[in-house]
Design brief:
4-stranded antiparallel beta sheet; mainly beta; about 0% helix; 7-stranded mixed beta sheet
Length: about 120
């Protein structure tokens, strides 16, 4: 059974930085793409970033140049480095992964989800 556990959320001032982590278990981590999503109160869940098994990365336009996704296969972990945070980044951030070895369906291919970690950005 695939399990995902996020950590690293917290309170940060606008303009600051935060790094989120997500540890995966239950299967061979390095084979699969991983992604970050976020959901702000009263809003739909939105895609943030993804990284495939070849370390290719994909970003939402709203975070390009400020957020960096990475993976460390030896630790079954992905990270999301968030810099220059804006108040609109305040949300619950969840990691996700797919059934497929490939990122061929993009964000919609993600089927396993963690519970999320809360990021609060103060102005």
């Amino acid at each position: 059974q695939v399990q995902l556990a996020e950590s690293g959320g917290g309170l940060v001032q606008a303009g600051g930085s935060l790094r989120l982590s997500c540890v995966a278990s239950g299967r061979i981590f390095s084979y699969y793409p991983m992604a970050w999503f976020r959901q702000a109160p009263g809003k739909e869940r939105e895609f943030v970033a993804a990284i495939d098994r070849f370390f290719c990365t994909y970003y939402a336009d709203s975070v390009k140049g400020r957020f960096t996704i990475s993976r460390e296969n030896a630790k079954n972990t992905i990270y999301l480095q968030m810099n220059s945070l804006k108040t609109e980044a305040q949300a619950v951030y969840s990691c996700a992964t797919s059934h497929s070895y490939y990122y061929d369906r993009g964000p919609s291919g993600m089927v396993y989800w963690g519970k999320g970690t809360l990021v609060t950005v103060s102005s």
